Hints:
The chain is mainly β. The protein has 2 helices and 20 strands. The protein has helices spanning 31-44, 56-59; strands spanning 47-48, 61-68, 71-72, 79-83, 88-96, 103-117, 120-125, 128-140, 146-159, 162-163, 169-173, 185-191, 201-205, 210-216, 223-225, 231-236, 239-245, 255-266, 269-275, 281-288. An 8-stranded antiparallel barrel has the order 2-4-5-6-7-8-9-11. Strands 12-13-14-16-17-18-19-20 form an 8-stranded antiparallel beta barrel. The radius of gyration is 19 Å and the shape is globular.
Amino acid sequence: xxxxxxxxxxxxxxxxxxxxxxxxxxxxxxxxxxxxxxxxxxxxxxxxxxxxxxxxxxxxxxxxxxxxxxxxxxxxxxxxxxxxxxxxxxxxxxxxxxxxxxxxxxxxxxxxxxxxxxxxxxxxxxxxxxxxxxxxxxxxxxxxxxxxxxxxxxxxxxxxxxxxxxxxxxxxxxxxxxxxxxxxxxxxxxxxxxxxxxxxxxxxxxxxxxxxxxxxxxxxxxxxxxxxxxxxxxxxxxxxxxxxxxxxxxxxxxxxxxxxxxxxxxxxxxxxxxxxxxxxxxxxxxxxxx
Length: 290
């Protein structure tokens, strides 16, 4: 539950996700840079909470887990956890459903309870017992903004009667920006990674968390909507999750899911970045159409 999915998905071009911000921000710094900041926060300029114990206020809200045991995850392996004021926890992770590339995004909303004692966070559910030792850190960026990190180590982890405690140490970062409003609308973009398909595509994002995917008909040069896409998106700060059915580029049928980090320069352009299999970096450049 707390670790990365066992199988990683190579890049698919069918489905990036977009989002901008009202002012110039680099929302997605890239996981490698995050880990450099984390090391600085913990070893150099970071500062532990002034108390020796955690309070609920230290952990409330959304966190994105970017890696474990000193290694950054491929973007698809990142996962989300959210601590609610009523001492319940939300959790979401990409789960691969076939040995090929099929995957779904699974959310658990409020099903897990948590408690805090000293620096120990305990999680409980009918099929889960999990205890971790956690420390909150912060570090300033050069632009004056603050990065907040939660570093936690497994002490006990039993799930469905199976001991899953490997003593792993995880690093989570609190999102700094929200792209909820700016993403809405129609966007056109293409993959700018060398060796990838540079064909332009369009994505139209709606306020209900769904989106439409368009391709251009080479015969009449008209944009056509993919009727069986069933596209949905989920936003967690600078991390966006996109799901759809039946990949247009690869021809693979079934459920699909990809994760992207978002950055932007203005309201009309964004960059989507992800590290995929074999550490390959994939980037989409997107421009707002309307």
